[in-house]
Amino acid sequence: MIIPTIPTPDELLDKGFRRAKKAANNVRTSKIPRHLKSKKIEEARITTACQVVKEKLLMILNRVPDIESLPEFYQDYIDITVSVDKMKQSLGALNWAYGIITQLEKDYTGKIRRSAPENASNLQKQLYGRLASVVKKISEDLDFLDYGKAKLRNMPTINFEATTIVIAGFPNVGKSTLLRQVTDAEPRVADYPFTTKGIQIGHFERNWKHFQIIDTPGLLDRPIGKMNNIELNAILALEHLADSILFIFDISETSGYLLENQENLLNEINKIFKKEIIIVFNKIDLIENNEDKKETLKKYKEIYENTIEISAFEGIKIEKIIERMEKVKKTGINTGNIDNV
Ligand SMILES: Nc1nc2c(ncn2[C@@H]2O[C@H](COP(=O)(O)OP(=O)(O)O)[C@@H](O)[C@H]2O)c(=O)[nH]1
Ligand SMILES: [Mg+2]
User: Fold this and answer.
1) CATH number at residue 70
2) Interval 14-62: pLDDT, tens
3) Which of 7, 11, 146, 170 shows a CA-CA span of 20 to 30 A to 50?
4) Same domain membership, residue 191 and residue 145
């Protein structure tokens, strides 16, 4: 979670005014000489109301991390999900309000100190009006941050130290099955733009090295050539994470996708991701008695080098995949380019 709870303008003002009232009562019941009281009361009201509102604004500003200092994947994610510019604008507006309120507080406490006691209450009312109008001016910004908070609540939690492998391949080729076979626990599901099911992140460890496997249903399982720019950006954000892509062919074609189409998808992925691609032929258990399919597999193995044949469902040759993943080098370099599509 990157954004703290955001109050509405009314909540912000109510809190300020309520605390100000208490502060004023404390002065009223204190031992300050009577002739000084009315000014002290109004001064306490002003200072407290301004301080409470400022404190809350500062808390929000301090708790939202500096977007530019986040890993690129998160910057892209925030940009695709809510827009980094709008986010910065809203935070900028809160910062602006903070500055104005500081000035108002200073001006009005000075005015009250210099004023006749009978004018103090009027000055305090003036300040309240101006404070309220400043807070109302950032109403849309508070709204936007609250919307951003909701949108970013279930952002993927990425381990940037881990070697990361992103799975690609048409629906039903066995991506989820393989993810479950390779990783320890149930994969964690996080929101991801343009996916309805969210992305799934699984982990496993080997020889004290941490591996992270990411499945992106709805994203790397359909023709990329037809995607619009925002969708492509959602894909490219993955480029920041992926040290390698694992592409799954369903050699049995029981998923309903012809091998020819699967090849096209592989080619498209090859074009946008400048990453090493591990090619896996899945569902070999289904072609055991099919000489034609076996022949096709042989042909494909000649075209693509270093492929692995598995049955994710029966757990055959899973170890081979893990051994292959262990050889993946951590790159962490973004070389993605949507112009290649
Ligand atoms: N026979 C067989 N079925 C498999 C294999 N791998 C996956 N399946 C089945 O294919 C279907 C789709 O698998 P799933 O992992 O959900 O595919 P995804 O859409 O790519 O995530 C499921 O019914 C799986 O049980 C395999 O190696 N052999
Ligand atoms: Mg799946």
Assistant:
1) 1.20.120.1190
2) 999 999 999 999 999 999 888 889 999 999 999 999 999 999 999 999 9
3) 146
4) no
